[in-house]
Design a protein that fits this description.
Length: about 650
């Protein structure tokens, strides 16, 4: 094959241009990025070799660095998976992550921390061009006959040609730029600088990162004694990173900072984790685990692409990056690792699914995490609220998804905003403050606390001083329906069915009124027969004229959520129109009904639409609604005028 010259993808050109010319102040991260790629490539080879018999099984992995000050070059070699000709073109020449470029462009003129950028997108390989005027990759995949050399000066194009390379893996050579006015590149050609960068950014990389080091040793005479003042220079290969897996260290000797650093390197996050949980279990099943709850939910946590799981090591050997059997779905945000000497090294995907040991570890870890959360809820409320903001939805999902099996485990972890309290409360705290005459736990759905407070359904509840849980997440009502009750107190929606909190006298009064107004209510119901199932006088309204409530089963909120789901299930919540008999509007309508029964149609429609609006639901025909309102307003004004004349006449 002769030498090919190819153009970078347009986006890559732009990214390269930005890389070289504008953004970074902190160029030194190139080394971390290249080492991290090398480590990933070794992971890939290693994992493949466990299942592919054509690949040599080994534990001799290494990332080797070399600095040549005279020739101004740095090389990073690994014995990982390497790349085939096509992989070289598709992996290196294109930007995989959509959005990266957009982000970069927007940030171009802003002050930006590079850690933000790397954390979000991991710009990776291209960062080499921040320090190098030319980059060369020589690579060989175990699946191709020969090796390939890729070179580029990071401008428009790159070249590829065949080269002889015996061993699998990749060697990247950076030709370091000359110093410019404000930029010092020379420092990257100093071994001590490279050593310190490895320590700083890559200490926890799990393969040895090695470099040659010149050492002066005292010269010895024939008898093996040191000759004073005379030295020999010898070259030793030194491992720069600590590499002792963090779990092999003594738990008590590890500082919080070390653990945070480990977390950030191992799981590519730029924020510190919120918690870590370190477990050592010995017995029938022996394992160690270090779990982390991230400080922020990753952007793609709820997308299909997100892969949950923990790193799995068996007998100290890395066997899997994301073992999903170790975490239940609702805890998908947990990061960390599990090391167990009891697991089989040649464990396959199929075996994992039915592995009793793994299931047992999963159950134990789940309990550990819940325990830790309970402890935090009790001892550090602020931290817990931060956790809840990021991951509360997951806990709710856990309750819903478990169809009640997780109820006992998780129900005390939920915190709710409530109408009366400033800070979110647990169910236990809600019960503690519940007045004696209150029999149920009230909740209401709305898009905010303020919106819920303003609904007509709050009238009576407010007058009684009861508190109401504010549900704002889509999952909330589904979760509540799974919970059913808490400490024998049933949940009750303030927007559903009969509230049944009015006192007996009041109820009787309403029943009397209903008997009296049966004609009127029937007329309204006839007008609205396609819209509502029932029209009745309300015991829950104090100040508002009307409200719409749903039947006992499906709420309006659930109707909205279900109708957004894919599929064509049509579900409808039962609608009940409640009218406030104490309101002047009701009295006015009574009068209209008695004097001009033909006008009741307009009034019924207006009442219903008004109730829809208050509930945040769409009205079918806004123009018609508006016309009817106008008609009534004009009529009211005319009556007013007549009344006015009367007054004058008096
Ligand atoms: P990222 O590592 O985030 O995917 P990079 O731009 O750093 O993005 O690398 C792009 C791709 O190039 C990698 O996903 C990998 O497939 C390939 N690659 C980079 N470095 C190496 C290497 N040392 N060995 C094998 N493949 C590599």
């Amino acid at each position: 094959m002769s030498k090919e010259t190819k153009q970078f993808q347009t986006e890559s050109k732009q990214l390269l241009h930005l890389m070289i010319h504008s953004i970074y102040t902190n160029r030194e991260i190139f080394l971390r990025e290249l080492i991290s790629n090398a480590s990933d490539a070794i992971d890939k080879y290693h994992l493949l070799s466990l299942t592919d018999d054509s690949l040599e099984k080994t534990n001799d992995y290494e990332i080797h660095l070399d600095v040549d000050k005279k020739k101004r070059k740095i090389t990073i070699s690994d014995n990982g998976i390497g790349m085939t000709h096509d992989e070289l073109i598709s992996n290196i020449g294109t930007i995989a992550k959509s959005g990266t470029l957009e982000f970069l462009k927007n940030q171009k003129n802003k002050e930006m921390k590079d850690s933000d950028l790397i954390g979000q997108f991991g710009v990776g390989f291209y960062s080499a061009f921040m320090v190098a005027k030319k980059v060369e990759i020589v690579t060989k995949s175990p699946f191709s006959e020969t090796g390939y050399r890729w070179t580029s000066a990071g401008e428009d194009e790159f070249t590829i040609e065949e080269v002889a390379k015996e061993d699998r893996g990749t060697k990247i050579t950076l030709y370091i730029r000359k110093n410019e006015e404000e930029e010092n590149y020379d420092e990257f050609l100093e071994s001590y600088k490279i050593r310190s960068l490895v320590k700083k950014y890559s200490d926890y990389v799990k393969y040895p990162i090695t470099m040659e080091r010149e050492k002066s040793v005292p010269r010895l005479d024939a008898d093996g004694n040191e000759i004073e003042g005379e030295y020999d220079t010898v070259i030793e290969t030194e491992t720069l990173n600590e590499m002792v897996p963090i779990w092999k260290k003594n738990k008590n000797e590890i500082t919080e900072e070390e653990l945070n650093d480990f977390y950030k390197t191992a799981y590519y996050d730029y924020n510190d984790p919120l918690f870590h949980i370190w477990t050592d279990v010995e017995g029938l099943l022996t394992y160690k685990s270090i779990l982390f709850i991230p400080g922020k939910a990753p952007q793609n946590l709820y997308s299909e692409k997100y892969e949950k799981g923990l790193q799995l090591y068996a007998k100290g050997v890395f066997i899997m990056e994301k073992c999903k059997e170790l975490v239940p779905d609702y805890l998908r945000f947990i990061k960390g690792l599990v090391v167990s000497p009891d697991l089989n090294l040649n464990i396959s995907r199929e075996m994992l699914q039915h592995n009793r040991q793994l299931m047992k570890i999963q159950k134990n870890l789940e309990k550990k995490i819940v325990n830790e959360l309970e402890k935090t809820l009790k001892n550090d409320r602020e931290k817990y609220e931060t956790f809840w903001k990021e991951f509360g939805v997951n806990i709710k999902y856990g309750i819903y998804d478990g169809f009640g099996t997780n109820k006992e485990l998780l129900q005390d972890l939920i915190i709710f905003e409530t109408v009366n309290e400033e800070k979110p409360v647990t169910l236990k705290e809600y019960l503690e403050k519940m007045p004696e005459d209150q029999k149920e736990i009230y909740y209401g759905s709305a898009h905010s606390k303020a919106a819920l407070k303003a609904t007509p359904q709050m009238d009576l509840i407010k007058s009684k001083g009861y508190d109401v849980l504010v549900l704002t997440d889509e999952i909330d009502e589904f979760m509540i329906s799974i919970l059913g009750e808490y400490e024998k107190k049933p949940f009750k929606s303030i927007n559903k069915g009969d509230l049944d909190i009015a006192d007996d006298q009041e109820k009787e009064h309403i029943r009397d009124l209903e008997t009296k107004s049966v004609d009127l209510l029937t007329s309204i119901k006839n007008v609205l027969k396609d819209e509502v199932e029932e029209v009745k006088l309300s015991t829950r309204l104090k100040e508002s004229p009307v409200c719409l409530v749903s039947g006992d089963d499906l709420s309006f909120e659930m109707e909205k959520v279900i109708s957004q789901l894919p599929g064509d299930k049509e579900v409808k919540a039962k609608k009940i129109l409640e009218i406030n008999p104490q309101h002047d509007l009701f009295k006015a309508i009574e009068k209209i009904h008695a004097e001009h029964p033909e006008e009741i149609e307009d009034y019924a429609n207006i009442l219903y639409n008004q109730a829809l609006l208050i509930e945040g639901l769409e009205i079918k025909d806004p123009v018609d609604f508006s016309n009817k309102m106008v008609k009534i307003l004009i009529k009211a004004a005319q009556i007013g005028e007549t009344n006015g004349t009367n007054i004058k006449n008096d």
